């Protein structure tokens, strides 16, 4: 068996994508921050003491997508040409969806996951004074487009 991220001596390496042709690629990820009912009520009426939680989380998620390669040692530095982070307050907490797009040599799945994760961390940071039990759940890739493997959609996702 051959491992793409190990050299012949078994040492970690970044895969060389120099010869790959840039193509349009996109990935969407989702996650959820579960919060106490009081936090959900504060989110809905805008009374969270630290301010506009969703605005901060949206910007944090976009920033996270752009800094992915700094966090994951074998991720390629790619151009993030588009990033959106959508948040929805639900009865149990906040649903997060991020879509990242590029025209580059490798995919943006890690960037989309990082966007959701950092947005979720920002939410927890903003509400931790109200609810120390908030939790980040079910962060996952839900769809991808482009690249050698083509399009994919997680079964059961709308």
Structure at a glance:
The protein has helices spanning 37-45, 53-66, 68-71, 109-127; strands at 23-34, 82-90, 93-104, 135-145, 152-153. By secondary structure, it is α+β, with helices and mostly antiparallel strands.
Structure description:
This protein is of the alpha+beta class. The chain has a single domain, classed as Molybdopterin cofactor biosynthesis C (MoaC) domain (Alpha-Beta Plaits, 2-Layer Sandwich). 29% of the residues lie in helices and 29% in strands. The protein has 4 helices and 5 strands. The chain has a 5-stranded antiparallel sheet. A hairpin with a 2-residue loop joins strand 2 and strand 3. Helix 2 runs antiparallel to helix 4. The protein starts with 22 loop residues before the first strand and ends in a 5-residue tail after the last strand. The mean pLDDT is 92.
């Amino acid at each position: 068996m051959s491992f793409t991220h190990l050299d012949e001596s078994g040492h970690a390496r970044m895969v060389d994508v120099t010869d790959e042709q840039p193509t349009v690629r996109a990935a969407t990820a989702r996650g959820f921050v579960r919060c106490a009912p009081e936090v959900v009520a504060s989110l809905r009426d805008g009374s969270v003491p630290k301010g506009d939680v969703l605005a901060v989380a949206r910007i944090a998620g976009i920033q996270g997508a752009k800094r992915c390669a700094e966090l994951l040692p074998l991720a390629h530095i790619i151009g993030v040409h588009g990033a959106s982070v959508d948040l929805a307050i639900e009865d149990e907490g906040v649903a997060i969806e991020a879509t990242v797009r590029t025209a580059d040599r490798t995919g943006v799945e890690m960037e989309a996951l990082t966007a959701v994760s950092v947005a979720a961390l920002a939410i927890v940071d903003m509400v931790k004074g109200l609810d120390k039990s908030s939790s980040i759940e079910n962060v996952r890739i839900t769809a991808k487009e482009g690249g050698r493997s083509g399009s994919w959609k997680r079964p059961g996702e709308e």
